[in-house]
Amino acid sequence: MQRVPRALPLLAAPLMIAAALLPGAAPAAAAVGAVPAAEPVPLTAESAREFVDTRVAELLEEHGAPGVAVTVVGGGEQLASASHGYSDLAERTPLDHTAQVFPLASVSKSLTAAAVLTLVDSGEIDLHEDVNAYLPEDARLATDGITMHHLLTHTAGFAELVDIPFASDTAAHLTLDGVARTREPEQLNEPGRFPAYSNHGSGLAGFIAQEVSGIPFDEFVEQTVFGPLGMADSGFVQVHEARGTLDLPAFHLADGSVPEDLHVSASPAGAALATTDDMARFMLALLGGGELDGEQVLPESVPALMTDRQFEVHPELASIGYGTYQWRGGDSPVLGHGGDLVGMHTGYTLVPAIGAGLFVAVNGDDTSPETQANPLLDLRMAVAAAFSETFAPQAPPSGEADPGADLGPYTGSYITSRRAGSGPAQLTVLLDNMVVRDGGDGTLSVGGGMALDDRWLPAGEGRFVAENGEDELVFLEEDGEVVALATGSNPTQVYERTSFLASPLTHGVAAAASLLVLFTAFVQFRRARDRFTVVARVLGALTALACYAGVGILAYGLFVAPHKVEEWVFGGSLMLTAPLAAAVPLALATAAVAATAWARGRLSAAGRVHLSLVAVAAAVFVAVGAQYGFVWGLS
């Protein structure tokens, strides 16, 4: 079964992924040959009804999410819709797709792209013109050469910019104008080099549409998309503002609790709301070349630009369109977009080859341990995958072990191109990276949170296929050197090759070794002979305690209360940065006492060595923490 990606959510998906243990080499196995695709089920009103009523209900039961709403289109019409489960677990109220409105999160980017492309169609925006030509002076980018093409394909080279405060943090709420004029992400790569999913880029595209049209963004989308398509119950509205007037489902975490709503400052990137019926109309317009109900409701160029391959790293991998991306490449591609808020997950998929589409909304996280641990397998993803596998199955890619191949050039450490430039959001690099090893039998071993298999078989010219058939990857070269790897399951980012010293694996080993040394500071309290010895030992223990507190808080936020890390990052909390900030002066004081001990002959020789090792270990641990933004004032 080929899994679809988590849809590169509005939120930083890697924050929800527990750091994976890197597996060892897999045992030798037979090569994966070409597996024929299953026979497709013809898409009719009856088969669509069977899918939404029966298969979706089965998947809800398997995954344990609160509720799911779904609609299917095909043959130019809406074929079937259904909702299962609960809108509010506490009240036991049923989810009702006929009455409720669903926050779309990053699915909003498709609506934004459609609106922007109407300006391209009219000649008011050139896709390949520097966007600074359209921006007011106080909002212009420091980097030249970034175009609307780059913004709509996530190839501007921006670092991740986290600007999604909680609803209660009103002082941190920004308008779209405020984001464009006051926030600019760091530039990690030159425009067009690598894809790196960017909420800021999509927000900036919407701001440009507002500037060029002279109409507030939400009104502009109403005039160009919602109104013409008859999406009467859709709009760009913040969730926390809509709750008092619209019927929205409650969001749920895996434990059944309801998280606080967020404020999406870059509203074009994730603040749209829609019903299942309205999303059916949007999908039909994209599938029908802009026609709906016998009328041309969108310029013909708009759906063509959105669904064509606009950026690719390899012709055989899934690609990116304008405001869309492929969930599956190959002979029968599946494309669309997905989105996530805390406790809310949405997505739509289009299968142009059969003129079909599906929209799904899930108002909570999975409770099944098997799928809760891996967001690539959540209910929203499972419904989307089941839809394409039922009505448009495709044989998985194939490869074959090559014992004579030189795989050394591919081995090494790779980090996600979608990463923050500063602050604790740099944690994504720790959780979303790949380590590639030579399997020793003509295959590669690939470890990482987003790796859908460990063993990968060569398929020619730097391309490899997962032994389980669920994904493929391609190594990208510049000047004959491998600089990145790209996966077929996630076209909106790549993994950039990094050096040994900059590798998260190296940092992890250094941090673990440091913690082992620091632990000895807790167990060396024998009867002290003098005040200097007491001071030295207390300082060493306090330094170690601060470092362990940082680890403990991070572990709690990742494993015990998984959404706490997101809460701290989005809320600008000091929870992640205060412990190591305290460790800095403590480590310096410990080092000073160690230096004094050596200079004046204080402590025993073993005591001086031990205290020095504690100071060095603390320095190494703090340095690693600072690398990922965990030291307040140094991130």
Largest sheet: 8 strands, antiparallel, barrel
Helix count equals 17
- Percentage of residues in helical conformation: 25-40%
Cα Rg: 26 Å
- CATH H-level name of the largest domain... which superfamily? DD-peptidase/beta-lactamase superfamily
Taking pLDDT < 50 over at least 5 consecutive residues as the criterion, the unreliable ranges are: 1-34
Mean pLDDT across all amino acids = 91
User: What is the CATH top level name of the largest domain?
Assistant: Alpha Beta
Structural class: alpha+beta
InterPro entries: AmpC-like (IPR050491), Beta-lactam-related (IPR001466), Beta-lactam/transpept-like (IPR012338), Beta-lactam_class-A_AS (IPR023650)
Region (Disordered): 392-412
Transmembrane segments: 500-522, 534-559, 579-599, 611-630
Protein name: Serine hydrolase
Summarize the entry for a quick read.
With 635 residues, the protein is of the alpha+beta class. It has helices at 45-63, 108-121, 148-153, 176-182, 199-213, 217-229, 239-242, 276-287, 301-307, 369-372, 379-391, 427-431, 504-519, 531-560, 564-571, 578-600, 605-627, and strands at residues 67-74, 77-88, 93-94, 102-103, 235-236, 272-274, 291-292, 295-296, 325-328, 334-341, 344-351, 356-362, 412-416, 433-438, 444-447, 455-460, 463-466, 472-478, 481-487, 495-498. It contains 17 helices and 20 strands.
Can you describe this structure?
The chain is of the alpha+beta class and 635 residues long. The chain has three domains: 26-36 and 45-391, DD-peptidase/beta-lactamase superfamily (Beta-lactamase), CATH 3.40.710; 408-498, Beta Barrel (Lipocalin); 504-627, no CATH class. The chain is 34% helix and 16% strand. The chain has 17 helices and 20 strands. The chain has an eight-stranded antiparallel beta barrel with strand order 13-14-15-16-17-18-19-20. It has a seven-stranded antiparallel beta sheet with strand order 3-2-1-12-11-10-9, with helices on both faces. The protein has a three-stranded antiparallel beta sheet with strand order 4-6-5. Strand 11 and strand 12 (356-362) form a beta hairpin. Helix 2 (108-121) packs parallel to helix 5, helix 4 crosses helix 5 (199-213) and helix 13 packs antiparallel against helix 17 (605-627). The relative contact order is 0.14. Mean pLDDT is 91; it is low at 1-34.
